[in-house]
Amino acid sequence: MSRRNGLMSERLKYELAKELGFYDKVKDGDWGNITTREAGNMVKAAIVRAEKIMADQEELPKK
């Protein structure tokens, strides 16, 4: 069974890694060096961002 690709953009992954403090581990493109906890924190941060974007879109007046 293959993994799903493209669910999170590369740009977002690196941005979140910087925010969460483990960019130095992945700057060369090797994501195998991060811990399970770091990966989980990155997913949580991505979910929080997505929820905020959705909430902001709901607040916009409809045309």
Could you explain the architecture of this structure?
With 63 residues, the protein is an all-alpha fold. It has one domain. Helix content is 62%, strand content 0%. It is built from 3 helices and no strands. α1 crosses α3 (36-59). The longest helix has 24 residues, at 36-59. The chain is elongated. It starts with 9 loop residues before the first helix and ends with a helix. The relative contact order is 0.12. The mean pLDDT is 88.
The secondary-structure element order is HHH
Taking pLDDT < 50 over at least 5 consecutive residues as the criterion, the unreliable ranges are none
Can you give the helix content as a percent range? Answer: 55-70%
Domain tally: 1
* Content of β-strand: under 5%
Distance linking N and C termini: 44 Å
- Please work out how many helical segments DSSP would assign: 3
Task: Describe the SSE topology.
Layout: H1 10-20, H2 23-26, H3 36-59
Provide a quick synopsis of the model.
By secondary structure, the protein is mainly α. The protein has one domain.
Give short descriptive properties of this protein:
single chain; 63 residues; mainly alpha
